[in-house]
Design goal:
The complex is a heterotrimer of chains A (about 90), B (about 750) and C (about 160). Chain A is of the alpha+beta class. Chain B is of the alpha+beta class. Helices cover about 25% and strands about 25% of the residues of chain B. Chain B has 21 helices and 32 strands. Chain B has a 7-stranded mixed β-sheet, with helices on both faces. In chain B, strand 26 and strand 27 form a beta hairpin. In chain B, helix 10 runs parallel beside helix 11. The termini of chain B are far apart. Chain C is an alpha+beta fold and about 160 residues long. Chain C has a 5-stranded mixed β-sheet, sandwiched between helices. Chain C is built from 5 helices and 5 strands, in the order E-E-H-E-E-E-H-H-H-H. In chain C, a hairpin with a 2-residue loop joins strand 3 and strand 4. Chain C has 2 domains: about 80 residues, Beta-grasp domain (Ubiquitin-like (UB roll), Roll); about 70 residues, [2Fe-2S]-binding domain (DNA polymerase, domain 1, Orthogonal Bundle), CATH 1.10.150. In chain C, helix 2 packs across helix 5. The chains are: A alpha+beta (about 90), B alpha+beta (about 750), C alpha+beta (about 160). Chains B and C meet through helix 1 and helix 18 of B and helix 2, helix 3, helix 4 and helix 5 of C.
Chain lengths: ~90, ~750, ~160
C-alpha cells in the first residue's frame, strides 16, 4: 500500500504519526482514505476536488503535476509539500 | 532512460545560432520594436512606501498637448476574490492587479499608480508630473522582524497566517508559515559534541538585468490583442494578462522579442497589462518602457531575510541535527521564496534530525520576484557558514566535513523526498582535487573559503515542433525564450538524434499562436525540458523517416535502421540512404514531415555546486578583493560546455556582488536611496579575476542525455564561501550581507 | 513640442541628416529617429555602457551626448562594424569565445573593445578589465568577454 508522509504541520491530525500507510491507486483515493481515518485531512489538502493551490505532490521523490488523478503504485511514497515553481516561487495563497 | 552512446554533437562548442545577430546589433529586443503610429507610455509611481490613495485627478495631464490616454486601477476589471491559476502556482488575483496599478493603497515607493500614453516619451513623462494624487501617508514597515511584531502596522487587513491549510484568527503581516521536520531534532542535538548557532541577515538585492522591462501592445478592431515584449515566458505573460484584464487567452498573442537578461525577474508582468490598457484606450499601439530607477523601485528584487541556523556534530564531524528559522520579506504581497530556501538549506547533507521553519512576511518594499535559485542563496549563507565554523572548531578540513556528511542517492531530504542520483560528493571531491585548493595562500589578510549549494531544478511543460527541409536541415520551433544560448543547447539535442550537425538546425523562438504551450525560461529547466521536447520531436521525425525509407525500398519498417545519420535496410536488401538524401525524397514518399514533442518531465534532477575562493581584506578600507575563484558544478551532461561555463561564471559573479556590494539602501521613509547602477554598484570586470568553471558530469537519469539544469545553483555558494574566506583572512565571522567595506571596518573595530 | 533642429552628421561613413529636439540624446536619435537600435538603453545615465558608440574616434555613452552635438561629427555604431560578408575580428572573437549570453550588453562591449584596441593593440588582461569597467554585463561574469578581447587583439 502507498505510504503518505504527513507534513509536520498536519501531524496534529494524525496524533503525531509521521507516515501513514493507506490504500489507494490514485491521489484522490489516497486522500479519501486518509480522510476516513483522519477527518479534516481532506480539507487541508484539497479545495473543490482539486489539490489546494500552493501545495505540490511528490510521488517517489518526483514532482508531479499535482493532480488528484495522478496514479500511484502499490509501494509509492507520497509527499505533500509547499508548492514551489522553479525560478518562480509560487505564492502560498 | 539514459542513452549511453558516444555523442557527435552534444559536448561540442558550435557557434550559437543567434550569435551573428547579437554581435552585429541586428537582434531585436523588446524596446527595439517599432510600429507606425506608435504612442509612448510612462508610469506614474508612488513617492510613499505606505499610503492610502484618497484621490487621483488626471485632468491637468489630459490637457497637455500630445497626451492621448491615461489609465488607473479603475480601468482594470474588478478582481474580486478570485484565485488565478498561473500554471506555476496559484495567486490571489487582486494582489496581481494591485501590483500593476494600485487601487486603494500604495505599498511601496515606486508602486505604479497611473500611466499615460502620449505622442512621445518626454510628453508622457511630463504628463505624469501633472497627475494629482492625494495620499494619506501611513507608517511603513521595512524589515522582516519588525513586520512580524504583533503591533506592527498591517499592510493588508485581511491577511492571516496560513499553515498548510489552517488559517489563524488574527490579521498579521505573516502570510504563511511552513515547516519541515525529520526525525527528532532534540535527540539529535543531545547526541552532538558541539553545537553552533548563529543569526544571519541578508539585504534586498536586485536581479540587475541590463535591459529594463518593456512592452508594446496593440488592439485590433476585432479585439485581438498583441503584445511584443521581453519576457522569460510568453505563455506566462499571456496567462497573467488574460487574468488581469479578464480577457480570453485565445484573443491574446504574445510575441517574445529577444530578452536582455531576466534571472527570474522577467516572469511576473508589470507594464505589459498597462500597455494593453493604454492601447485599448487610445486605439493605437503603445510602447511602455521602464527606466532604471523604475526597474529598481518597481520590479521584483529578491528578499532581505533573517535566518537563524543551529547545527550539532560529533567530534568526528558527523552532523547529528540541524535547525533553521527562515523569515523572508515577501515585499508588498505574499509570495517570498522562503519555500525553496527551506527546501534547499540543508540539502548538501544527509542529516537524520532536522527541523526547518519558514515565514513569508509582507513589508513595504516591492513585491519580490524570483532571482536565480530564489531563496537558496539566503539560506546557504547561513548553513554553509555554520558548517564552516563547526569544521574549524573541530579541526577538520571544510571540504572533508562536507564529504563526511554529503547527501547521496537514497538519502532523505529534510522536506521529505528521497534524493535520486545526485552529484553532491562529486563536486566536493573535484573541488578538493583542484590545484586551487592546495595552492599556497598564506599572506597576511588573505584567506580561502569554500561552500556548497543545492538547487532542485524543475521540469514543467515544453513543446517543440520540427519541420524537415528538403536539403537535410530542420527548422526547430520552440517557445522557450533564449536568455543565454538555449537555441543552441536545444538544437544540439535534436541534431544528435538525427545525426546531423548543430548548424543543420534552424531554431526559432516563436509567439504563443505558433507553438505548443511552453513554460517559462526559469528554474534551470530550458535545456533540460525544452531540450527533452526537442529530443522527442526529433525521435518523432526519425520514426516517420524510417517509414519513408521503408516505402522507398518497399520493405517492412522493422527492417529499416538508423545510425550515424544513415538509414539502412537490414534482412535482405542492402539499401542505404543518408538523412539528407532521404529529406530530398519526402515528396514522393508521402509529403512533408513534421515532428512534434511535448513533455512535462518530473525527473529534473537536482544540481550541486562547490566553490573555492581566495580573498584579500584591506585592513585600512575594509574592502574585500577576490583574488581567485573556482566554481565546481554538476551539470549532469554539458550539452554546450561553453554556455554551461558561462552560467557558472555569471552565477558566481552575481553571488560575489551579493556578497560584497549589492543591497537596497532605504531611508526611514522607505525610499531606496541607491536606485541607479552607479550607486547600487554591481560588479564590473575590474572587480574580478577569471572565474574557473569546472564541470562535473553525473548524468541525470531523468533525461535521455543526462542533462541537469545549470543556471541557478552557481549563485548559491558564493556568499558563504566569501564569508568563510574573510574569516580565514581576519578571524571574524561576518553574518550580515553585503560584507561591504563599512561592515568590515565595523567588525574589525575600526569605526 | 520643442522645435526640432536640423543636424547633419556622418554615421558609419555615410552622411546622415535628421531632425531632433534639443533634449533628445544621441541614443534616442539613433534608436527612435534613425532606427539604429544596436545601441541599447540600460540606464540612460552613463553607468552601464550598453549605448557605447564612437564619436570622432572617442568612445562615448550615447545617452550622455545630445543629438544636436553630433553636427558635423562622425559617429560609429555597432551596425557599421561588419563588412557585408565578413564580421569584424572582435565580433568573431565574441562568437568563438561564447562571450555573450543574453546579448543586450554585447554591442556596447564590442564598440568599447574596438576603441580600446585602436588605442592599445596589445593590452594586458588588466588593461582590458580597466578599459571595459564602464560596460556592465550581468550574465557572463566577464571571463569570456575579457578572453574574447584578448583573442581579438592577438588576431589583429
Amino acid at each position: 500500500m502507498p505510504i503518505v508522509a504527513i507534513p509536520s504541520l498536519l501531524r496534529n491530525l494524525t496524533n503525531g504519526e509521521e507516515s501513514i500507510t493507506v490504500p489507494g491507486t490514485t491521489i484522490r483515493e489516497v486522500i479519501d482514505n486518509l480522510e476516513v481515518r483522519y477527518p479534516g485531512m481532506k480539507a487541508r489538502l484539497c479545495e473543490d476536488d482539486r489539490i489546494k493551490p500552493g501545495l505540490a505532490v511528490y510521488i517517489n521523490g518526483l514532482l508531479t503535476r499535482g493532480s488528484i488523478l495522478e496514479s500511484v503504485d502499490a509501494d509509492a511514497e507520497i509527499h505533500f509539500l509547499p508548492a514551489i515553481g522553479g525560478g518562480m516561487a509560487a505564492p502560498s495563497h | 532512460m539514459l542513452e549511453n552512446k558516444e555523442h557527435k554533437v552534444i559536448g561540442t562548442r558550435p557557434i550559437r545560432h543567434d550569435g551573428v545577430d547579437k554581435v552585429t546589433g541586428r537582434a531585436l529586443y523588446g524596446a527595439d520594436f517599432q510600429a507606425a503610429g506608435l504612442l509612448h507610455g510612462r508610469v506614474l509611481r508612488s513617492p510613499h512606501a505606505h499610503a492610502r490613495i484618497i484621490s487621483i485627478d488626471t485632468s491637468r495631464a489630459e490637457a497637455l498637448p500630445g497626451v492621448k490616454g491615461i489609465v488607473t486601477a479603475k480601468d482594470i476589471p474588478d478582481a474580486g476574490d478570485k484565485i488565478a491559476d498561473l500554471g506555476e502556482g496559484a495567486v490571489n488575483l487582486k494582489y496581481l492587479c494591485d501590483n500593476i496599478l494600485a487601487s486603494d493603497k500604495v505599498l511601496y515607493k515606486g508602486h505604479a499608480v497611473a500611466a499615460v500614453a502620449a505622442t512621445n516619451p518626454h510628453i508622457a513623462e511630463e504628463a505624469c508630473t501633472l497627475i494629482d494624487v492625494e495620499y494619506e501617508v501611513l507608517p511603513p514597515v521595512l524589515e522582516v522582524r519588525q513586520a512580524m511584531e504583533p503591533d506592527a502596522p498591517l499592510l493588508h487587513e485581511h491577511i492571516r497566517t496560513t499553515s498548510l491549510g489552517e488559517t489563524a484568527e488574527e490579521p498579521s503581516n505573516v502570510a504563511s508559515h511552513i515547516q519541515h521536520k525529520l526525525g527528532d531534532p532534540e535527540k539529535g542535538f543531545a547526541a552532538a559534541d558541539i553545537v553552533v548557532e548563529r543569526e544571519f541577515i541578508t539585504g534586498t538585492v536586485h536581479q540587475g538585468y541590463i535591459e529594463p522591462h518593456n512592452a508594446t501592445a496593440h488592439y485590433n478592431a476585432d479585439g485581438q490583442l498583441t503584445i511584443w515584449c521581453s519576457t522569460q515566458g510568453a505563455f506566462t505573460v499571456r496567462e497573467q494578462v488574460a487574468e488581469i484584464l479578464q480577457y480570453p487567452i485565445s484573443k491574446i498573442k504574445v510575441v517574445p522579442m529577444e530578452i536582455g537578461g531576466g534571472f527570474g525577474g522577467k516572469i511576473s508582468v508589470y507594464i505589459k497589462p498597462v500597455a494593453a490598457l493604454l492601447a485599448k484606450k487610445t486605439g493605437k499601439p503603445v510602447k511602455v518602457l521602464m527606466n532604471r530607477s523604475d526597474v529598481f523601485e518597481g520590479t521584483g528584487p529578491t528578499p532581505a531575510s533573517f535566518i537563524r541556523v543551529k547545527m550539532g556534530a560529533t567530534k568526528e564531524g558527523k552532523i547529528t541535527a540541524a535547525e533553521a528559522y527562515l523569515a523572508f520579506e515577501a515585499g508588498a504581497y505574499p509570495g517570498s521564496p522562503v519555500g525553496p530556501g527551506a527546501m534547499c538549506i540543508f540539502a548538501p547533507y544527509n542529516i537524520e534530525h532536522v527541523i526547518i521553519d519558514g515565514y513569508d512576511v509582507v513589508v513595504n518594499k516591492p513585491k519580490t520576484a524570483p532571482y536565480r535559485a530564489p531563496g537558496a542563496p539566503n539560506a546557504a549563507f547561513g548553513s554553509e557558514t555554520v558548517v564552516d565554523e563547526i569544521a574549524e572548531k573541530l579541526g577538520i578540513d571544510p571540504l572533508e566535513i562536507r564529504l563526511l556528511n554529503a547527501a547521496k542517492e537514497g538519502d532523505r531530504r529534510a522536506d521529505g523526498p528521497v534524493h535520486p542520483r545526485i552529484g553532491c560528493i562529486e563536486t566536493v571531491e573535484a573541488a578538493k582535487a583542484h590545484p586551487h585548493y592546495t595552492a599556497p595562500n598564506g599572506k597576511k589578510h588573505h584567506g580561502r573559503g569554500v561552500a556548497s549549494g543545492y538547487w532542485f531544478n524543475i521540469g514543467l511543460e515544453s513543446s517543440v515542433t520540427i519541420n524537415v527541409n528538403s536539403d537535410g536541415t530542420i527548422n526547430l520551433i520552440e517557445g522557450s525564450t533564449d536568455i543565454g544560448g538555449t537555441r543552441a543547447s536545444i538544437a544540439m539535442q535534436a541534431a544528435e538524434v538525427l545525426g546531423i550537425s548543430a548548424e543543420s538546425v534552424n531554431p526559432s523562438v516563436v509567439d504563443t499562436n505558433s507553438v505548443g504551450y511552453t513554460a517559462v525560461t526559469g528554474g534551470s529547466r530550458t535545456t533540460y525540458a525544452t531540450g527533452y521536447a526537442a529530443y522527442e520531436a526529433a525521435q518523432d521525425v526519425k520514426r516517420q523517416m524510417i517509414a519513408r525509407a521503408a516505402i522507398l525500398w518497399e520493405v517492412d519498417e522493422a527492417n529499416v535502421q538508423f545510425a550515424d545519420g544513415e538509414f539502412s535496410s537490414i534482412n535482405g536488401k542492402e539499401e542505404q540512404i543518408s538523412f539528407r538524401d532521404l529529406c530530398g525524397r519526402l515528396g514522393e514518399t508521402g509529403g512533408p514531415i513534421v515532428g512534434s514533442g511535448t513533455v512535462n518531465p518530473g525527473g529534473a534532477g537536482g544540481a550541486y555546486a562547490t566553490h573555492v575562493v581566495d580573498v584579500a581584506v584591506d585592513e585600512e578600507t575594509g574592502k574585500v578583493d577576490i583574488l581567485r575563484y573556482t566554481a565546481v558544478q554538476d551539470a549532469g551532461k554539458a550539452i554546450h560546455p561553453s554556455y554551461v561555463e558561462g552560467q557558472i561564471q555569471g552565477g558566481a559573479v552575481q553571488g560575489i556582488g551579493w556578497a560584497l556590494n549589492e543591497e537596497y539602501i532605504y531611508n526611514d521613509e522607505g525610499t531606496m536611496t541607491n536606485a541607479s547602477f552607479l550607486d547600487y554598484r554591481m560588479p564590473t570586470c575590474l572587480d574580478l579575476p577569471m572565474i574557473d568553471a569546472v564541470i562535473v558530469e553525473v548524468p541525470n537519469p531523468g533525461h535521455p542525455y543526462g542533462v541537469r539544469g545549470v543556471g541557478e545553483v552557481p549563485i548559491v555558494p558564493p556568499m558563504a564561501a566569501i564569508a568563510n574566506a574573510i574569516y580565514d583572512a581576519i578571524g571574524i565571522r561576518m553574518t550580515e550581507l553585503p560584507m561591504s567595506p563599512d561592515r568590515l571596518l565595523k567588525a574589525m573595530g575600526k569605526i | 513640442m520643442a522645435r526640432r533642429s536640423h543636424v547633419q552628421t556622418t554615421i558609419n561613413g555615410e552622411t546622415v541628416e535628421f531632425l531632433c529636439e534639443p533634449r533628445q540624446s544621441l541614443l534616442e536619435v539613433l534608436r527612435d529617429e534613425l532606427h539604429l537600435t544596436g545601441a541599447k538603453e540600460g540606464c540612460n545615465n552613463g553607468n552601464c555602457g550598453a549605448c557605447s558608440v564612437i564619436l570622432d574616434g572617442r568612445l562615448v555613452n550615447s545617452c550622455l551626448v545630445l543629438g544636436v552635438e553630433t553636427e558635423g561629427k562622425s559617429v560609429e555604431t555597432i551596425e557599421g562594424l561588419a563588412a557585408p560578408d565578413k564580421l569584424h575580428p572582435i565580433q568573431d572573437a565574441f562568437l568563438e569565445n561564447a562571450a555573450l549570453q543574453c546579448g543586450i550588453c554585447t554591442p556596447g562591449f564590442i564598440m568599447s573593445a574596438k576603441a580600446l584596441l585602436e588605442q592599445n593593440p596589445n593590452p594586458t588582461e588588466h588593461e582590458v578589465r580597466y578599459w571595459l569597467a564602464g560596460n556592465l554585463c550581468r550574465c557572463t561574469g566577464y571571463d569570456k568577454i575579457v578572453r574574447a578581447v584578448l583573442d581579438a587583439a592577438a588576431a589583429e
